[in-house]
Amino acid sequence: MLVNMKQVLSIADAGGYAVGSFNVYSYETIRGVLESARKNQIPAILAFGERYLENMDFETAAAMVKSESKDMDIPFALHLDHCTSLENVYRAIKAGFTSVMYDGSALSYSDNVANTAKAVEVAHACGVSVEAELGSLASGEHSHEGSTADEEIYTSPDQAEDFVRRTGVDALAVSIGTVHGLYKGEPNIRVDILRSIKKQVTVPLVLHGGSGTPENVLRECIRHGIRKINVNTEISVFTVEHIKELLKETTPHLSVLSLQQINAIKQVVEKYMLMFR
Ligand SMILES: [Zn+2]
User: What is the count of structural domains for the chain?
Assistant: First the structure.
């Protein structure tokens, strides 16, 4: 059942767990995430990014998700990930997305507040939830989203409190040491910063850069208020490696390759879905 992100995250909050947000940009990724949610009866978030507009437009993504989820009774949200353009936020809402992330993290603080508040005003009028980001994640290997900076800018707990109050966002993405993509060295996750943010902010907190983050660290983050964890890179890397191995042995029909992709995607998605519980 397609609901907004606020509803999905309130279920997770009541259960004390985090919902996985998995990137979708093709028929295979959409089926992989929906089938994993259906099979395990675990809520999920399907995240389509602005950068995937070359793969499909908002209307196609929404239509495919709706068609593939007709018999789903488990709640899930269709989310627009890392969107730096207000126009695209509005287009996604019109196309049927139930959640949007306006990413003004590269702007000045005041511009980020002003633009996020605009996104919230329109989204809430349409029953759509809004996520925003404060601070900025560093970019790891195979990174496919966010900024391309090597330096992490940690979220300030005081600013987080002010930001949430002034914008009315439903969820806040925090920067505490995870990276977009795969880690280049040892992860250094600042759970102390997360705990300070949690004391000041009542909305659910979001962790980007789930791929490759150690399980014990993820569990610690969930204990301290993380309710949504984004996973993108590992799904792609694992699936491409799986297909490469397959192609060494055989030359399957393209339709079989599509099914093989779905199976590989499901392996990574289910691993994280179960880990986040
Ligand atoms: Zn991200």
Answer: 1
